[in-house]
Records
---
Amino acid sequence: MGKKIESFSRNVNFTALTDSTAIATVTHTLQGFVWIRAKYTPQDTAFSIIKKNFTETIVRLVKFVRINRTKDPRNNWKISEISAIEGGTTGSQITINEVRFYAGDDTIVVTDPNNTFLNLENGKGRVVPEMAANLTLPLRVQVTVTSSAPGQ
């Protein structure tokens, strides 16, 4: 039915790996609530409206490479790679184990989001795929569910 985010925070921590490479850990935390319209049993004729609080934390790693040595540090670095996003809702009973994207002859498999990096430009490694708007692509998601009881 809907979701309302009541607070949002972002934290960025930089770590120098070498003189010419660095990595940023970007953490977003969202808090709010979601409304769910559901039946408690298949035999129910009426829907119930449930309001449930949530806290969601997502983490992404961003790799930087030095491209210059000027007085303005913003002109000295560029993003070279980004990781997939890892995260979820506190207390969730569903875990995503694997996501597979199929784009033409290419397949991207993500099992460890913060260890799956995509390049922003042509270079070494896998490049972030470019897709046309309104394109339908196959996607496979493998999950583990730890509870089958509603409302647990």
---
Amino acid sequence: MQAEVRGGPVSLRSLGVREGDFGLIGVQAASLQASAQVTLPADGANLAFSGNGVLDQVSLSRAELSSSPLSGIHLAFRGRGTTTLDGARLVLDEGEVALGDVRLQGQGELTRTERSTQTHWSGGVPLASCQAMLDATPRGLVPLIAPLRMTGTFAIHAELAYDSERASDTRVRLAVANDCRIGQISADLSPHRFLSAWQREVKGPDRLPMEIESGPGSPDWVPIESISPFMLAAVLVCEDGHFERHHGFDYEAIQNSIRDNLIKGKFVRGASTISMQLAKNLYLGKEKTLGRKLQEAVLTLLLEQELGKRELMELYLNVIEYGPGIYGIGPAAHHYFDKRASDLSLGQALYIASILPNPEHQHFDKDGRVSVAWTQYLQRLMAIAKKIGKITDEQLTAGLAEQVAFRVADSGGGPPLAANPNPEEGTDTPSELSP
């Protein structure tokens, strides 16, 4: 038995879609044109399907996508595959979604039983110009970066194999070819403006907005030469072990993050690099939307393209939040340990770096000392710092003897490093080590 349906273009409203359904707005103007073929063999074992279609002039308002409504969406799609009538097994032989001139292709299969779910998928974005990708974004999704002009090409291929009964065997593979560059930069987006003093809005201790001055020459700014090398080592250990070698994105960490989150069945680790965090702090707000993440990615490229690693590290250490209303390593060193950033010990530096994912939550006991559990965590971080060549044996020994305590300058850890040793190997963010 075979059935075929063709129709359109017809407005979504005439298809019964109401204003607000799925976040859709302007449903009268949006249209759908589609065709589909379905074949059911005599034995009725599997249903074969194929189809294609075009959605045009679609507008959306969904908080997880953007704080502003999206409009002008032109989406084409096609697919071919088979499925069992009970939905226990789905095979997609080929599928494609095109947004503008950018295509997302994929194929795979999904098998479900009462006890398990098994799936294997592969696909990605074939080689596309970076400007085409920017042009394909709907109006309202990336307003800050929309005026940018880009050169180069981008492609990504991904593979996933997952079996819920053997989750630890989950395989994730990413292959990324990113040759994007920013060719036209407006003055307000130029990273070079952050190399002198500027004003920015942050949240104060009461979490209300306040204005502060940042940048070289501002009262709380600490040049990188005046920051304890232990602090530089600490953020590499805790936040971005491959910072010195990647170009803004750690694809290995992204791959491992996806795998670990699937294995645990919940979010347990991210893959944001120092450069990505810096882009968010310099340019963007705190909202968790797809639009913000896309803008963060492009702005990360911009920062890495225009500034050197030492400039990026100096900016990062001076603009991020270390606690409610505490911005910059200078104020943080004074607040937590009553000392200058240049004098931080290994344990103190690692404590400060270890709270960056959640700086509102502290780990001091009532007597002011760091808790036993967190001290053990800091000692594991020290071992990682030694393993990747950031500290010497002597500095590790001194660090392990430290008793880090709130507002206590001398924790018994010895003086900071004289120089930053060369790395032997990288490490992912050790979030899985935290208590």
